[in-house]
Design a protein that fits this description.
The structure is a single chain. It contains four helices and six strands; from the N terminus they run βββααβββαα. By secondary structure, it is α+β, with helices and mostly antiparallel strands. The strands form two sheets. It has a four-stranded antiparallel beta sheet. Strands 4-5 form a two-stranded antiparallel ribbon. The longest helix is centred in the C-terminal third of the chain and has 18 residues. It starts with 7 loop residues before the first strand and ends with a helix.
Length: about 110
């Protein structure tokens, strides 16, 4: 066992006022709105907040970043969850793409 952990998050998925999205096999939740509920350990929450603060658009910090969790709230993915993470990422990408006005101009 190692002392390293990792999280999967989507800095390009600004969830704004959406608290969470339940995909059935995983959840994507808004760090700014749900961190205290899902991460009770203040030290862990602060470390993740520090990590997420590195994501910027121009000079502005990106807010409301989506965090991916699995099953009974596993913040840190196991190897088998990377395929699930990829599916979740593609689902989010396609849903944003399908709601983009740019697509209306193509038809």
């Amino acid at each position: 066992m190692n002392n390293y952990s990792q999280i999967i998050y989507f800095p390009y998925l600004s969830m704004i006022s959406t608290a969470e999205i339940n995909l059935g096999f995983a959840k994507i939740w808004n760090f700014d709105l749900k961190a205290e509920e899902y991460i009770p350990d203040q030290a862990v929450r602060d470390k993740i907040k520090q990590l997420l603060s590195l994501n910027v658009r121009g000079t502005q910090q990106i807010r409301n970043i989506g965090i991916l969790t699995f099953g009974d709230f596993s913040l840190y993915p196991q190897d088998q969850n990377y395929l699930i993470a990829e599916e979740a990422r593609l689902l989010m990408f396609l849903s944003v793409l399908s709601s983009t006005p740019f697509l209306d101009k193509l038809s």
